Amino acid sequence: MNTSYLKRKADAFEVYIVNSNSLSAEISKNELDFATEGKSEALAITVAKGKRIGFAFSTDTSDFKKVADKALSVAMANSPDKDFKGFAAPKKVTPIKNYSDDLLSYTLQDFTGFHKQFIKGMRAADKSLVLSNAFFTKGTRTTRVINSEGIDLKETLALNTFSYELTIKRKGELVASGGSN
Questions:
Q1: Can you give the three-state secondary structure of the chain, one letter per residue?
Q2: Which residues, in sequence order, are bridge partners of residue 15?
Q3: What is the pTM assigned to this prediction?
Q4: 16, 46, 101, 155: which has the highest count of C-beta atoms within 10 A?
Q5: Could you tell me which residues are beta bridge partners of residue 144?
Q6: Is the per-residue pLDDT at 151 higher than 80?
Q7: Per-residue pLDDT for 107 more than 60?
Q8: If phi over 0 gives left and psi between -120 and 50 gives alpha, with beta otherwise, what is residue 2?
Q9: How many beta carbons lie within 10 A of that of residue 10, not counting itself?
């Protein structure tokens, strides 16, 4: 991201960029029933011009200058904020990686492969096991914060959820039914 435009136009600034991805799938009677994917992006810019603060937000991240100009315009329309001290300064932090890269790259094909192995193992344990439904949901979000004080941080979060509804039938009779996450 090129923040040189903001460096020329504002006294101070802070930029947030968020990218989110989602994937959901359902298996019914051992067949993929549906799958859906989604993506979203957002850009938020806060600027200080003197003690005047302006903010602009857009889901169109392709026009950084337009969002920056809107934030600058809002700042110039606002009264000075006597309490504004500035944006956060960088501090020494130790990065923490609290996820596996596999979670970020987990695909629909990975889910269907995992599902086949899961069912194979369960049926080996009990041949009367019947899968009613299986669900998979994946969400990832990457947030980046850059400011005029030298902060440039990036955080990535990932969440994968698997859910199964299983039944056991013996001699045509339902013996047990349940689900798991």
A1: CCCHHHHHHCCEEEEEEEEEEEEEEEEECCEEEEEEEEEEEEEEEEEEECCEEEEEEECCCCCHHHHHHHHHHHHHHCCCCCCCCCCCCCCCCCCCCCCCHHHHHCCHHHHHHHHHHHHHHHHHHCCCEEEEEEEEEEEEEEEEEEECCCCEEEEEEEEEEEEEEEEEEECCEEEEEEEEC
A2: 45, 146
A3: 0.78
A4: 46
A5: 17, 154
A6: yes
A7: yes
A8: beta
A9: 23
Cα(5)–Cα(29) distance, rounded to whole angstroms?
Answer: 56
Instruction: Name the residue among 166, 174, 114 with its Cα closest to residue 138.
Output: 114
Which two structure tokens, joined as six digits, stand for 8? 């020329």
Q: Each residue of 16-52: pLDDT tens digit?
A: 999 999 999 998 877 788 889 999 999 999 999 999 9
d(C-alpha 13, C-alpha 11), whole Å: 7
Residue 135 CA to residue 171 CA, distance in Å, equals 28
Give residue 69's identity as a one-letter amino acid code. D
